[in-house]
Amino acid sequence: MLHLSFFVFAAFLFQYAQAAPVQIDRRIDQTITDSTKDWQEACVNAGGTQDKCSGVAVPAFTSLLESGGVCDQQNSADTMIDLAKQLKSDPEMIRLAQLFVQQPRNSPDKSQVPYCQVAPKNEELNGLFHCQFAGSDFTTFSGDQTGNVPLGLKSLSPAGSCPAKPDGPVPDGVQLNTLVHDPISASSNVSTPPTATSTVVPEASNALPQVATATASLRAQWSRREQDRAAIVALIQHKGLKNVSLEESVESKWKGRMYWSDPDDLWK
Fold it and tell me: Quick check: helix, strand or coil at residue 141?
């Protein structure tokens, strides 16, 4: 009799489950170590040691865990860019860091993960924010609801998209750098941030005002940016200011990554 009652009860449960399946909101996660694997390889190829490269990569991929702070991922990407700049501004490291900052983060309950509301340290990350996974509930965000829109935007469409993938979210568990190559898609509305190879060379006729602007900025905080160097060289090459030895001096100091105490010293 006991066995018969058990089978009747089991049959009842099976029929109920078939009629009204229970929906369970599962977490969305990924193999987080894959998110920095290519970057770490590029770091070693650029001359970084295994310890130094992994010392940046490991905290970076752990920032994708659901327990990570809202800006931890961006902070890690800034650290990745910092190390890239120490290794001759390696372009592949910078590209992969720009993609890493857009990698979806783990979600404990399928809610969308909020966006960092603080500007990044490095300009190479300006305008970049993480995608969401496709299985997310696009009607809700986790957290205190203060970062439901990327910094600087009033809305985001389609939901879950990011500059590298403006057509929509990333399939669950997939690494963004396996889907796209460029940190900003040609169809994205986000302007392209500077990269290690982007250079602004002013026309000779426009050199003086551009250099004046660069000089004023450099007095406050001398910059290593390539566009400032290019503007200085353009000034030297400008009509009436040609000075081969001075140009060579600028190039020599620039390659040595040295600071000038005062930019005006360049053309004394």
Answer: strand
DSSP assignment of 142-190 equals STTSS-SS-TT-S--SSTT-BTTBTTSPBPTT--GGGT-SSSS-TT-SS
* pLDDT score at 241: 45
Burial classification of residue 225, based on how many CB atoms lie within 10 Å of its CB (0-12 exposed, 13-18 middle, 19 or more buried): middle
pTM of the model: 0.65
Residues 6+ apart with CB under 8 A from 173: 28, 29, 30, 31, 133
Strand 111-112 and strand 137-141: the pairing is: parallel
**Residue that has been written with the tokens 């057509």 in this structure:** 167
* Residue stretches of the chain with pLDDT short of 50: 2, 4, 6-10, 12-24, 197-230, 233, 235-236, 238-268
Strand, helix or coil at 198?
coil
Half-sphere exposure of 261 (CA within 13 A, CB side): 1
The two tokens of residue 59 are: 């905290």
The pLDDT value given to residue 140: 92
DSSP structure class, residue 68? S
* Block residue for tokens 């099976």: 14
Contacts of 16 (CB under 8 A, 6+ apart): none
Per-residue pLDDT at 143: 80
Quick: pLDDT tens for 185-199: 887 776 656 555 443
- Contact (CB, 8 A) for 68 and 62: yes
DSSP category for residue 119: -
Alpha-carbon distance of 34 to 31, in angstroms, equals: 6
CB 92 within 8 A of CB 124: no
∠ CA 151-161-125, rounded to 5°: 45
